[in-house]
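User: Here's a chain of 338 residues. Predict its fold as tokens.
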Amino acid sequence: MAKQTTTPQSVLDEIASGQVRPLYVLMGEESYYIDLISNVLIDKLLDETQKDFDLSVVYGKDVTVKDVVMLARQYPMMASKKVVCLREGQDCSDYEHLATYAAKPNPNAVLIINYKHGNLDRRKKYWAEIERQALVVESKKLYDNELPGWIQQFVLKRGGTIDQKSATLLADFIGNDLSRIMSEIDKLFVTMPSGQKAITPALIERNIGISKEYNDFELLNAVVRKDVLKANRIALHFSKNARNYPLIKTLATMAYFFNNLMYYHYLTDKSQGAVASELGVPYSIAKEYEVAAGNYNGLKTMRIIRWLREYDAMAKGVGARGAADGDYLRELLFRMMH
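Assistant: Prediction complete.
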């Protein structure tokens, strides 16, 4: 059988179409898709009554893989398939038994392995057989620049809308924890006024506590336009609320933008569509690079990238001068905008 490693979304599409495999190995750093695929499979195969008889959910700290395989070899009582789900499979080690099962799985069962916070060891002998026979799904963390787009698509599937600025606010504040992002978005839908479908910065600020004025997105916006007053006002707010605005995260946001800006300077086609495609950013954000390029030439951009690396090192304790994060940020902003 050919290698069946695939993406989370393609697996969800396949399940929705009615195609179900006998063995799934769901692994990786992003737990959201691991849980989602498992739950979708269970709900697809069993109704609530059947779950009482033909669903076995076990945890790695309580069982061995050998135990799980024995469960998967059982026949269903009421449903067409026996469903066995091993959660927290990273707590098990005897995966050689899974390789043996994978070679001849029970056609009347679906076995789902959840292996979070990492992947099965590909150096082990058992891996080749598992990869050859099972449907392997590696759930990876999204990159920061992918989060706003993911949020917009998620909200759209929920029947709402969210603009780029609001999506970026959520991404900057929450980070790339998709389960938490989903939870916060669901909270916004619950608190949304009747008849409203749009998630706005005001709604986010009112219900999640993210300031629509004081965030990394607005700070970057001020730097791009060399709005010294606004940048320093935000920096002062950050310094007074240091726990909510870690310097390392602010620097990462800046570094991502200015690294892209350096690339922008060398693009031959600087049309908005071409910039969005080349830099991998939303169309609405591409315009920001044109504005920034007017204020920061290639040489200045290169210096800023070097300074960002220096301050990132100091924020992590390398060459630190004992100053507070807020002092480092205000010093950096002065160098950047003057």
